Amino acid sequence: MDPLTHIAAGVAISQFVPSPSRGWAALTAALFAVLPDLDYVLIFQDRLSYLKHHRGFTHSLLATVLFVVIGAGLTRLVGGPRWVRPVFLIGLLVLASHLFLDWTTSYGTQLLNPFTRAKFSLDWVFIIDPCLTALVLAGAAAAFWSGGRARLVGAGALALAGAYILACGFYHHQALKVAHKVFQEKSPENVTVAALPQPLSPRRWLLVAAAPGEIRQVFMELPWWPVVETMPPATDIPVRRDPQVPPRVPQAAYRPPEALEVFLWQVAPGPAAALPPDARRLLDTYLDFSRFPLLRGNDNDDRGTMLTWLDLRFSVPGREIPFVFTLHLDQTGRLNACRVGGARLPMGKSS
Fold it and tell me: Which among 40, 44, 9 has a CA at the least distance from the CA of 107?
């Protein structure tokens, strides 16, 4: 979830906690709200390190406890004993809201780090959701400036935001049922199926089925009250590849369940020889981040080989695919360059 949503939610939550100053409470909440995202600084090291460690330890339950205890301790030194309890409660509630909001997206959050690097995601809400942001932002502003009605207004705004998230969860459940029906005939075995949220509407979904050698995608818009019935078979539409342009999602429409199109992505042939250790480490880091990785390109010329992987998790119709990973090998098979998106990584960095 984006920082604005986290800050707005934190400010709204802070008005529920009795404190010596509503203004300082809001500022404290804003600081706690962005604290887990301090791992964003890793992007200045290199993008692969960011992909590996973002939403790692700073987004874990253990880090939440540490942040709250440290924050309360520092507050006692600066503001005195009267601020310890308010800061402790604000920190605990705001950080819990941060973890929950991130958990609802498809990015993956390592809630149990450092005990495990397993990533948890509900797949309910797109990573940036203007509707949810507007609700919590309006609630935060109203709660802060509404005087004695602050708690009532804030509670109403947070209740609406919570209802919106639950509605997204309901639509996700229905979209997943459609996904299993659509892909059951296409890839009945050894297939991983998911329903992933799309921007701007809780009824728009990306259905994905990953099987050995291929990945299928469907862009769907559910009716307001979805009823999953028998659907006609959907036709596969192969996604053509142009090596001269950046990988792009097909220009597809969001179709109702009874008129779906299935876009078929074929896996490219693997490299003829095993990757060198430094390239293998970089690729393993990318694959650990990816949820639906696809080797899309294996291009050879007189300068060597370029291997291109995609992660189809954040596909949006007509848009370039984010998080494209490329390895450039010279004619002898040694690693020459590595890129994530448009950023070239320093050689030897596997983080």
Answer: 40
CA neighbours closer than 13 Å in the CB half-sphere of residue 98? 33
Judged against a pLDDT cut of 50, whether residue 351 lies above it is answered with no
pLDDT of residue 349 exceeding 60: no
Query: Residue 266, exposed/middle/buried by CB under 10 A (0-12, 13-18, 19+)?
Result: middle
Q: Is the pLDDT of residue 147 over 70?
A: no
- Distant-in-sequence, close-in-space partners of 309: CB < 8 Å, separation ≥ 6: 283, 286, 287, 290, 293, 294, 295, 296, 324, 325, 326
For residues 228 and 208, give the distance between their C-alpha atoms in angstroms, rounded to a whole number: 17
Contact assessment for residue 85 and residue 73, using Cβ atoms and an 8 Å cutoff? no
Question: Residue 194 and residue 116: Cα distance in Å, rounded?
Answer: 23
Q: Which of 280, 184, 190, 296 is nearest to 246 (CA)?
A: 296
Number of other CB atoms surrounding residue 297 within 10 Å: 17
pLDDT recorded at residue 218: 95
Indicate the SS3 state at residue 228: coil
- What is the Cα 133 distance to its own chain's centre? 16
Angle at CA of residue 105, ends 54 and 294, nearest 5°: 75
Is the pLDDT at 150 greater than 80, yes or no? no
Q: How far apart are CA 248 and CA 322, in angstroms?
A: 9
Contact 247, 308 (CB under 8 A): yes
Distances in Å between the Cα of 142 and the Cα atoms of 12, 38, 94, 282 are: 9, 28, 18, 47
Select from 112, 159, 160, 292 the least CA-distant residue to 214.
292
Between residues 132 and 50, the one the model is more confident about: 132
Q: Output the six-digit token pair for 149.
A: 């009605």
pLDDT confidence tier of residue 79, bands split at 50, 70 and 90: confident
Find the mean pLDDT for residues 31-50. 81
